[in-house]
C-alpha cells in the first residue's frame, strides 16, 4: 500500500485558487447548509429568471425526486458562449488538434457563436423542435461540440453515441429515446484509420426501422471526403445546411429542470440505460468542479483527452470549460500516433497547462518507455488529472515523476456518468496526495461506506460506496423508465444513492475506490455490462450459453473473459474463438471484444440454475485456492474442468 503523502508542491500552493483551510471551511458550509451554499454558487452561471428555490430532493425509496434551482430559467449555450462575447470574443474557445499532426484549428468564442447559431438554425430548418432528441454520432471534430451546443441553444436533447459503437448499438439508442434526427460524418479518422460512420448510420437506421423507429433527417459532416451514399430527402450535407441557415439564433429560455442530454451507459443488467441530465444544476456543477478541481485560471489552455461520446467529454471538454470561458483542447487522434510522444508534443505545441487523461493511456505510454516523454519539453504543464478507473500506484508515480517532473499535482477524480461531475477528488492547492487514492469529497458530497446490510461503517474501513444526499449535477432519471432509476440506485440501500463501487477509507479519511462490486467491468476506462457481452454471444447460432467476467489486465485495467458453452454437436476450435470475438465486435463495437474465450462444457450453477459468477471470476483471476463455498453447486465437477482448461492471461 502506498500511504506516502505527497504534499502540495510549493509553486502550486502559491498559485492555487484555494488552500486546505479554505477547502475545509467551504466543505463544512456545503454540508451544514446546502441551500445557502448552492444558492450562492448557483450564481456562477447566468440565469434569465433567477431561482428562488435551491434544493428540492428526496432519496426516499417510495418517492425519489431530484430538483435543483427548479424555478430558475437559463440557456446552456448562452452560458457557454454568448456571455463571454463581450470580454472574450477573440479568445480561443476551442483548439482542435487533428489526427494528423499537421491539422489544427483555433476557434474563437465569436466564431463559436456564429457556427453554433447557424447549426441551431439548420436543425430548426430540418424540423428539430424543443424537446426533440438529436443523436450525435460524430468523431472528435469541432462539429461535435457545435452540435451539442446547437441542441442546447434550441432546447433539443442530445444523445451522443460513441463513434466506436456498432450499427446495432447505435440503433438501440436511437430506438430507446425515439430520436428522429441524427448528425454524423462521412467517416472518422483515428490513428490514421478510417471509421465508416455514415455507413454504420445507414445500417442502424435500417435496423431501427424494423422496430418501427423512423429517422427523418441525417445531417452529414464531410470529414474525409470518403465515398458514401446520400439518401435523397433524408440526408443533408452539413456544410450546405449551415450555409443556408441564418447566423442569428436567439437562445431558447429553458427551465432549470428541462432535459439537457441523455447518455447511455452500461449497467449490471439489461440494455444500456439512458442517463438523463437536466439544465441548471448540471451546468452549475460541471463548471464549478472544472474550476476548482483543475484550479483553472484565466487564459490557460486546458486539455481533456476523453471522447465526447463519454460523460467526461460532455462535462470536461465542452460544458464545464466553456461555461468558465476557458480554452479547451479537443483531440481527434490517439495517444500513440504517429508515435507515443504525441500527447507531449501536443502539450508543447499548444502550451497546455492542465492535462486530464485515463490510467489506461498512462499505462500504455509507460510501457512504451520514458524516452518518448523526456524528449519533449512539457514545461507548460501545471496540473495533471486521471479519470475512468482506479489508477495503480506504479502508473501514478510514473505520471507524477516522469510526465510532471514532480512539479504537477495529480487530481485522481472519481465520478460516474450518473453523477454528472466529479465527486471525490483532490484539489490542487488543498490536498496532499497519495498515489492511487481519489482522496476527499468535493463540496456538497457526503460519501459513506456501508456493509452488505447497509449499515454505515465508521473510521478506517472498507465496504460499498454510497452517497447520502443529492448534489446539483446528479442524474434525474433513466430516460423513459423512472422505476429503473429507483431500482438501480436507491433500492439496494434505502435512502441512499448506491454507486456500484467498492471503497476503502483510511485513517486520514482518504477514499480509495477498489472497483465495481456489480456486474459491470471497466475495460480501458470504458464501462461494459457483462450481461451485454453475454447476450451478444448467445445471439451467435453456435452458442448455447455464455458467462462473462472481468480479470486483471496489465494495460486495460480489466480484460473481458468469456466462458462459452456450445450448442449440441458444435466443436470448439481456435477458428470459432476468433469468429466469436469478431461477432461481438460487430454486435456491440470494438471496445467489447472478449480478450479470452474459454469453451466450457458446463457452467457452475446453483441448484436453482443461477450461474455462480463469483467462481468464474476467481478462475479468470487465477485465484483457485479461494473459490469459496462450492457446496451449493448442482454439479461440482464442472469447476475442475474449468480450472484445467483456463485460458492464459495477457
Ligand atoms: C467518469 C467516468 C464510472 C465508473 C465508476 C468507477 C470507475 C471512474 C475513477 C473510477 C477509480 C477513479 N471510475 N473514475 N474508479 N478511480 N478516479 O468514468 O464515468 O464511464 O460512467 O464510469 O468508473 O468504477 O463507477 P463512467
UniProtKB/TrEMBL annotation:
AMP-binding enzyme C-terminal domain mapped to chain residues: 532-610
Catalytic activity: acetate + ATP + CoA = acetyl-CoA + AMP + diphosphate
Chain positions found as N6-acetyllysine: 610
Enzyme class: ligase
Residue ranges of domain Acetyl-coenzyme A synthetase N-terminal in the record: 23-80
AMP-dependent synthetase/ligase domain boundaries: 82-469
Residues holding ATP: 388-390, 412-417, 501, 516, 527
Keyword set, alphabetical order: Acetylation, ATP-binding, Ligase, Magnesium, Metal-binding, Nucleotide-binding
Post-translational modification: Acetylated. Deacetylation by the SIR2-homolog deacetylase activates the enzyme.
Pfam family, one: ACAS_N
Protein family (similarity comment): Belongs to the ATP-dependent AMP-binding enzyme family.
Function, in words: Catalyzes the conversion of acetate into acetyl-CoA (AcCoA), an essential intermediate at the junction of anabolic and catabolic pathways. AcsA undergoes a two-step reaction. In the first half reaction, AcsA combines acetate with ATP to form acetyl-adenylate (AcAMP) intermediate. In the second half reaction, it can then transfer the acetyl group from AcAMP to the sulfhydryl group of CoA, forming the product AcCoA.
UniProt-recorded name of the protein: Acetyl-coenzyme A synthetase
Species the sequence originates in: Rhodobium gokarnense
